[in-house]
């Protein structure tokens, strides 16, 4: 892969990562309530899931989406249900108009956050279709070398992580403008509603 192709590939993956979808909405909602630092492990989980789909696409296993369609359907519904559950928890996180404490916010372990991010991204098997149609523009998949696979994996990881964390940082900066408990409660409800909408979109969108 030439330098120009590598740069184009990086920019394309970055744009793909910030395109609105269930993963972006999940990070957006979490960052609005808990801040960007709490999104790092979730973002890593999402990147790991995307890289898995990337590997599948590189090794010509795209037909898995057809052969294992029932499994993908179950995964998609599990992810959608989880997003809706997270949205509900956000909406009901306030009691007596008091915001949730920092201690309550940090009850999730890093491994749990990572797993949640992986599940959310894995729930969207359409990602593999993107890579299948996108990768041949830059690489001949019939002559794939180990160095090519390492390069596109590194570029994808950096582009995805940068894009996701920029979304998280921007959402957190916007949320920090709102300071009053009532405003924070409304923010939590808005974030929860976004998460529920993302889950519903994932469930009904084929």
Automatic annotation (TrEMBL):
InterPro entries (alphabetical): LeuE-type
UniProt membrane topology term: Multi-pass membrane protein
Principal location: membrane
UniProt keyword Nucleotidyltransferase, yes or no: no
Compartments, record wording: Cell membrane
Keyword field: Cell membrane, Membrane, Transmembrane, Transmembrane helix
Domain of life: Bacteria
Transmembrane helix in keyword set: yes
Transmembrane segments: 6-28, 40-65, 71-88, 127-144, 150-175
The protein, known as: LysE family translocator
Species for this entry: Photobacterium iliopiscarium
Lineage, opening ranks: Bacteria, Pseudomonadati, Pseudomonadota, Gammaproteobacteria, Vibrionales
